[in-house]
Amino acid sequence: MAAVQWRSRGRNYDAELQRCRPEAALVEFGDYHPLKPIMVTDTKTRRGTRKGSTSSSSSSSSSAPADPLSSMLDGTDPLSMFAAASASEAPAMSHSVSAGDLGRKKREKEEEVVGADFEPWSSKRGEILARFTTTEKLSINLCMGSDKGKAPSPGSAVSEKVRTRLEELDDLEEGSQRELLNLSQQDYANRIEELNQSLKEAWASDQKVRALKIVIQCSKLLSDTSVIQFYPSKFVLITDILDTFGRLVYDRIWTMCSDPRPLPDSFTVDDVNDTAKETCLNWFFKIASIRELLPRLYVEAAILKCNRFLNKSGIQETLPRLTAMIRGIGDPLVAAYTRAYLCRVGMEVAPHLKDSLNRNFFDLLGTFRQISGDSVQNQLVLQRVEVPEYLTLYSPAINWILQCIAYRAPELLLTEMMDRCKKLGNNALLLNSVMRAFRPEFVAARATDFIGMIKDCDEAGFPKHLLFGSLGRSLACADPPESERLTILNEAWKVVTKVRNPQDYVNCAEIWVEFTCRHFTKREVNTVLADIIKHMTPDRAFEDAYPQLQSVIRKILTYFHDFSLLFSMERFLPFLDMFQKDSVRVEVCRSIMEVFIKHQVEPTRDPVILNAMLHICKTMHDSVNALTLDDEKRSLALLIIGFIRMVSFGRDFEQQLSFCVEARATFCNLEPVLVQLIHTVNQLAMETSTVMRGSHSRKTAAFVRACAAYSFITIPSLSSIFSRLSLYLLSGQVALANQCLSQADAFLKAAVSILPEVPRSISVEGKLRSSESFLLDFINNFLATLLVVPDHPEHGVLYLVRGLLNMVQDYTWEDNSDAKVRVYVSALPLLAAMSQETYLYSIPKVDSNETLYGGDPKFLSEINKLCETLIGQILDHLKALGRDEQSTRRQCALAFSLFGVLLAHGDLRNNKLSQLAVNLWNLSHKHGYCETRISVRTLEYIKHQAHLPDMTHLTDTVQRLALQSRT
Amino acid sequence: MSVTLDIRLKRANKVYHEGETVAGVILLVCREALQHHGITLSMEGLVNLQLSSKSVGVFEAFYNSVKPIQLISSNIEVAKAGKVPAGKTEIPFEFPLNTKGNKVLYETYHGVFVNIQYTLRCDMKRSLLAKDLSRNCEFIVHSQPQKAKVVPTPVNFTITPDTLQNIRERTALPKFLIRGHLDATNCVISQPLTGEVVVENSDVPIKSIELQLVRVETCGCAEGYARDATEIQNIQIAEGDVCHSLAIPIYMVFPRLFTCPTLETTNFKVEFEVNIVIVLHDDHLITENFPLKLCRV
């Protein structure tokens, strides 16, 4: 086999290109083409006008855009359609899953009343639970079955059903009087959850009486105000149970009516059957006989919705009655929360009944004087709770009631409410709730009034900074009249700045930052920042206030997108210095970077921005350590890269390069950043070349060499072998393009020299994968570049190609892999291309080997020898493959690819070569693994080629290529 | 072999009036065909009177229970001896609710000493080896609506230390003034008792305000008559130190079965009263009593 003689086929690239072109234009207009969109062609731009303007494949008249992919997505993107559909569906789903179509209209009507803009209870829940906590010990006192009123006199003859119920009741009585003492808050919550579970279980096992008892006992717990700080949270936990109960009862009665078909959502009393009505009525009678007031109120409120089964006006009549009954609750806190619950249920069931909401509020106002009464004061003394703290316990309830009232309420009503509050001597607690619950626009319009009212409040009851906090919150969302803004800020800040406790201070200041940012310039914001720094620095108070300080930064970033302005604020960077805990610091830097990347549109060279940003990026970079997660590193690197891409010194390339040098020093631990820097520098070199229109002056030549040097010394510090390889190649190409031949040589040599280091497997997205395909890709790419690289004058002919091939030979490829031979096969076209008189491509101002050797026969024979060696190697490998049955498929594929290369690049006039081609063809078809379609195509191609002027010799060859039919 | 026998009334609430027809089905569910010696159904309305041991001594109370007064009674044979096929068998029935002579159907009432009850009883006689089956089912009778118009007769009240009777030491009593009114003392039984109570002032904080519904049952017998008042239910309307001079609603639903329109017959009487009970924090108990007249319209 050693006697193969290689002759490259002479190519005339221009002529081949010419031959290809007209063929491409030959596609008839009406011809089928897979990428052609089904459309009416635009008659103005297409040449096919004279042939008639419609495509034959379809007469549809849609004027879709030419791109078939985008036309698919035009307007009817299925995903966004789903999203839109589900968005409109979502609130409806929460109503009732099994709702029929009939109910839809009604539901929509209801939604008109309570829309998405009504902040639901569920969102308040967590906040309350988190805010009202206690470390004191709690107790649960459950005494099942103590309501005497309920038990009918046993002397009478009772039906069996009643008897079993009574027994059940007795069961509960025995040993069920239990008091759980010394519970921690968590224990308490767990107990309540247990009760919730046992309620569900009791219900599921048809023990309705037991379920009711659990609910009654739970609501009884709400009358216990020991450990008063925990009361709001207790309310939340227990009303969850009540909600569960209400739902269970409603659902059960609803299913009783669902025979034969489910009740529509908009059902009326007439749709409800008698059994269901009777059951419902029974519930109400049972509840009406609950002895104690509070459980009776709560449980009836919980099943308020069930009134719909009984009569039209039930809810309408019950709400005012329950509202009035709450007056009977002596403890003002308990009463306030009961009202909140009633309002909550009312809003859910009958949001249109506003009257009872108002009634509730007025009653609440009416009982306000109780807070200063003896009973409450004694209790506070006993529990050692301060009045201000006690008052804050009210806020969730009052806020909720006011929120319900204020929801889509007319302006007039709100004004009336405000007046009523005023009449109560500007009670701070109320004022606070009014500001939080009413529409921000409403509050903002009267901001000055409110400030006056806040000032008039007595300091003792309710801390003023909380009031200003609430006001600030409203002003952050709605704008007060332009003329008043500065006064408002001054007045508010006067109070805020006097707050002693740093925690209180920062809570309030944080809110007002937004207002300041919204309406004022950097000067005012700067002042505010200075004030915050002043308050938070003593005793390192900032350490406890990171969340608030972070929120300050976030708010500033929302309003200030001009970073030169931002960083020129004197106090901004000192403010950042307050974040001394590493994780928080990085978090803040990250948020700044995110905003920067999002909003900085133009590249910048502003030294202020650059300095500050470098500082911020350095902070982020320095946070990286051995424990940092990969994802974390990646995202940090992305942010820093985003910054680097935004830096541009325009025509001042040297400055840019020195920036890159500095950046490299600063960000040496983040590889992606280094990669980006190398890309930036390469780009810089290419820009220089563009500016100089390809011919460098002495100065620019030196500069691009400096760029190359930068890349050359940076690349080795990367750990990823493939980034190194590709960057070497890229930088080599850039160096070539800038006529830095020795640098290019060095890059490519370096690439070749590290090839042996490529590991056999690399980790891709956390999975270990074979590196072979990556390596092959790289080598092919590299080979393509080698065509234009001129030989080094001191080294031998084709120094780099040989070097590469040697490396390939020595590389430890995977066992059973054809990779090495595949490289050889792909090296053949390169060598063939190198032996042409004119090369397929070249780099301006760089003399490739074509010019260096000028088609020197010695050079050509050198190439041919190389080819022969390669072919020899390939044939040896093919032979080796033939020995093994299992590898015949690989043999066939390899043989066919070599055949292809011979056909395309070899000179088949040479008999030996053409014989070799025929042999390869036969070898590849020997085992029938070859795909017939491809074989047929190939034959057709060869026949076609044979028609060309200097290719007639192929006619012979083609006759010797037999096509095997698969049998 | 399991058999279940059940009586199902047509009306879900089981409420009937005089002159109406009690209709329903007897439901038999058995897995195999069932041999029986006849199924009968009887309807009965009874007034059970019992003498309280308090008024007539233990033995008399035990022995001397007044003979029940029968208000209505009728019997029908539903099926002659034979076989019931396997599966579910429904046998419909109807009873006209008519009294004989000048007897009146009193309203169903479950009390302590007076019980007015209407039952349906279904018996299935079976062979010697198998037990007889029987099933009871109570249904409820509401008396005919009252023809005369109800005059609500509201009542106002004021409670101060001076208005109280039955007190041991008037001097130890704290000062208070409680006002209020009941919207009606002639009440419609299907509608709640309503009114308002206002604590104008009170030296000692209030602990609780309750409404106590009381039945007063009187049974006549040979030796005279016994009159007993017992509590039906106690409903709290105020808890804790309520806000002064704020009207607290009085609201109580009359419980079903345990109340009926006020009844007065030759042998027995059923009357109702309501007590407004105010408990002060020092456990003083102040009670104001109001007799009620219940009626049905």
Automatic annotation (TrEMBL), chain B:
One of its GO terms (biological process) is nervous system development. It is found in: Endosome. GO terms for cellular component: endosome. InterPro entries: Arrestin-like_C, Ig_E-set, Vps26-related. Its main location: other. SUPFAM superfamilies: E set domains (SSF81296). Keywords: Endosome. Component of the commander complex that is essential for endosomal recycling of transmembrane cargos; the commander complex is composed of the CCC subcomplex and the retriever subcomplex. Component of the retriever complex, which is a heterotrimeric complex related to retromer cargo-selective complex (CSC) and essential for retromer-independent retrieval and recycling of numerous cargos such as integrin alpha-5/beta-1 (ITGA5:ITGB1). The recruitment of the retriever complex to the endosomal membrane involves CCC and WASH complexes. Component of the commander complex that is essential for endosomal recycling of transmembrane cargos; the commander complex is composed of the CCC subcomplex and the retriever subcomplex. Component of the heterotrimeric retriever complex consisting of VPS26C, VPS29 and VPS35L; within the complex interacts with VPS35L. Interacts with SNX17 (via C-terminus); the interaction is direct and associates SNX17 with the retriever complex. Interacts with SNX31; the interaction is direct. Belongs to the VPS26 family. PANTHER family: VACUOLAR PROTEIN SORTING 26 RELATED. This is Vacuolar protein sorting-associated protein 26C. It comes from Larimichthys crocea (Large yellow croaker).
